[in-house]
Amino acid sequence: MNSEFISISCIPAPTFIEGDYVVFEPGDRHPDRNNLPYFILIVVTRGRLFISEDGRNMTVSPGESVILLPKHHHYSWKATAETTEYYWLHFAVISEWDAGPQPMPMRSSVEVPILHYHTPQPTLYLLRQRRIENPKALHALFDRLFATSTSQMQNNFWPTQQLFIDVLQTIQIVGEEETAPFRLARQVRRYLDDHFNETITSRKLSQVFHLHSSYIVRSFKSAMNMTPNEYLIAYRMEHAYKALANTDLPVQRVGSMVGYPNPSYFATQFRKRFGMAPSEVRLLHVMHEPRQEV
């Protein structure tokens, strides 16, 4: 059984394209396809399917699923020996994804402000091939998905996509399969969020998490695509911008609130981030406030 992992960024989310239920008689073969731009999810309900991807042979038995990668060569490496039935669907992914021996955290393909980003885990983890824990429930989801996608009901796009998301949630891997570096990065990020207005150094993080600072930095960067210090600066700056735009607090007070008691250093960091001085933010928002009629 293929034990590879597929890791997919959910921002933006995968999209259902099409699907169906097929029956192969003995001697039939899966279509020979090359460079199809979609992922293919197959769930066998009866018989055995002999499918190959770029010469890598896989046998899929009843109660098992397999996922074929986009833009690869898929074909039957052997004809079916008995009546074989299975569900299949195509889904598109335009975000970042990876296939390999370990699950890999994927960053969002869309820039999301750190201050307002509350999704703790934007990566979908799937196994290339696996046994389905509750096949009857999954089969029922497939039936509803295909019935909705082919109905004449208007505006059935969103109900169809919701059912497809339910399918992914049923077959996804959660929890224990997260890598140790990603779990550490998530813990470090929570610590930074809770203590962003304090003095935080690599030595401090090493003391808090009882790990070498270089390992913490590598783990955080692999998951977040930035170092803990870069994340901390960005988080502080977004808090500062929000305070300057929505309150009358003095600039120096705002700087102290986000961990910069030195006004000059705060102004320098702010200008690097936003291309303007802190005082300009307040002026900008005053100019754009709607005038009240008298």
From TrEMBL:
It comes from the Bacteria. The lineage of its organism: Bacteria, Bacillati, Actinomycetota, Actinomycetes, Bifidobacteriales. InterPro entries: AraC-bd, Homeodomain-like_sf, HTH-like, HTH_AraC, Tscrpt_reg_AraC-type_HTH. GO terms for molecular function: DNA-binding transcription factor activity; sequence-specific DNA binding. Pfam families: AraC_binding, HTH_18. This is Transcriptional regulator. The keyword RNA-binding does not apply. Keywords: DNA-binding, Transcription, Transcription regulation. SMART domains: HTH_ARAC. Residues 186-284 form the HTH araC/xylS-type domain.
